[in-house]
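Late entry, evening session. Most of the bench is empty. Finally got around to the prediction I had been postponing all week. Sequence below, unchanged from the version circulated by S.P.
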Amino acid sequence: MRFVVDGMGGDNSPSAVVEGAVMAVNEFSDIELVITGPQQAIQDELDKYQYEKRKITILDATEVISTNEHPVMAIKKKRIPA
């Protein structure tokens, strides 16, 4: 089963998100994760851990919607990856 996770979605992102993703793929053999967000920041965090590399991929999303942005305006103004 494949899940997509917002790499910048939460406090202490992306480190907390990446740590949880690695814990998940190490515990559950039947899942794969796609982490969205700035590729280099996520990769830097992933490099700190041991995990089966094929089970986590990164979808580079350079645009981040911050908590103080109105969602509709952010979607209209920012580039959404295809």
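Two things to note before I forget:
The first strand starts at residue 2 and ends at 6.
The radius of gyration is 13 Å.
Will write this up properly tomorrow.
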